[in-house]
Amino acid sequence: MKTIIFLIVILHSFNLSAQDKNVTKGLPNGYAWISPLSLHPPVYAKEESLLACLQQRNVLSEIDSSINKRSFPLGCDNDINELLHKNASIEIKDIVKMIDSFYSIRENLVIPVLGAYCYSVKELAGVDNKELENYRQDLLKYSLSKSE
Question: Domain extents for the chain?
Fold first, then answer.
C-alpha cells in the first residue's frame, strides 16, 4: 500500500513539473513551442498555436486595458505599426520560422511565445542587434523572476 501511494505521489509530482515547464507565468513558452508534434495535430500546429496566443492577447487587451501596464515586457505594437506603415506584410509562416530560430537557443526556452513573437517582429522591423539583445535580456529577466 505504501508503495502504491509513493508511486502515485511521484507520478503526480512528475506530471506537475512537466506542466510547469511548458508555461512561464501562465503563458506558453518555448518548451511548449518545441514539444513533440505527437502532442499537436501535425498540420500547421505552430501556426495555429501562435494565432491562438495572439488571439488570447487581443481578447485580454479588450477586457483589461491595463494589460500593457503589466510586467510582461511585450512592447512590439510600435514595431507592428511601423511594418504596417511600410506596407510590409507579416507572414505567419515567416514568423514561425523566426520563432523556431529564437528557440534554437536553449536559454530562450523559458521566454513566453508572445515574447518570441515580439522579438521576431522587432527583427523584421529592423531593430538593431544591440536593442534586440537588450529586449531579449528583458524577456529573460521577466521569465526567470519569481514575482509576477
Answer: 2-144
